[in-house]
Design goal:
about 375 residues, alpha/beta, Rossmann fold, seven-stranded parallel sheet, GDP-mannose 4,6-dehydratase
Amino acid sequence: MKNQNVTLKNATILVTGAAGFIGSNLVLELLRTTEPVHIIGIDNMNDYYDVSIKEYRLRKIEEEVQKHTASSWNFIKGSIADKTLIDQIFTNYKPTVVVNLAAQAGVRYSITNPDVYIESNLIGFYNILEACRHSYDAAACDDSYHGVEHLVYASSSSVYGSNKKIPYSTDDKVDNPVSLYAATKKSNELMAHAYSKLYNIPSTGLRFFTVYGPAGRPDMAYFGFTNKLRAGETIQIFNYGNCKRDFTFVDDIVEGVKRVMQAAPEKKNGEDGLPIPPYAVYNIGNNQPENLLDFVDILQQELTRAEVLPADYDFEAHKKLVPMQPGDVPITYADTTALEEDFGFKPSTSLRDGLRKFAEWYKEFYKN
């Protein structure tokens, strides 16, 4: 088990992508469990998907803040690609923990809209790294501030590309991305490593595996399938159903992120007297890939149970098996051994339990 060397209580924590799926759930969890805590959130609130879902997430955070008067929440609408804004946030708030979850997501969207991936995932992340680097300059002038103690950032299972060896291990080579999105995430890991080496910034990358749950991203399969089935449209199941995904419930992801935040890689020097990069990368996945056809079967059962769809819905008439899409891979499967050994944690929510919570949320959110 790794030592907990970062205290979250009373900490000032910057969460980028705070109106996003994982970001908003992380903010909620921190408010509920680490009072007092001071959280700054930034999100550009773009319209890549339905903005009303992002607004819903922010309302949930505002409601939670009212219950925790010792904590604080400051939300800034803006882009991490805006270097001036990021520098202002670091100057004004002096965060000690940074969780970078802001990114342009989606494999297929990166094929048709590559510019936004370069802007957010590369330039934006560079701005975060530079701000973390210069936080130590600020610390030199302020005895009460020690700079960024830990940078945690989102990577993705997409970095494994078309690797044949499964389960995917962080020890595997990941030099063959099959989408621009995957390439930007691998680039984030390389950039973080360089900054850890050059400036001794403790950083941890987290490779997330197919995250799902209530108030999730509408571009994800489970959400898109639900929208189409509800509208009486046909859903397309890629690779003729011969895909497997390591579906990971959002609460498990958040628990993993929170544990990782508290255990930064230790700063130490090598035999040459130079810093050994305080750098780590972990998988966070369910370690139990599910066949896409089984996934759809459970989803339709839970949508029926939640009365999102009628009991007599003809599912077979609304399914179509189609070939693999460019940028997709046939299987994702996380080796979570390192996460278990270092943090005593492994995601465990079953697909049925997770999809049941999603279906119940969907019924409530869209009831009108």
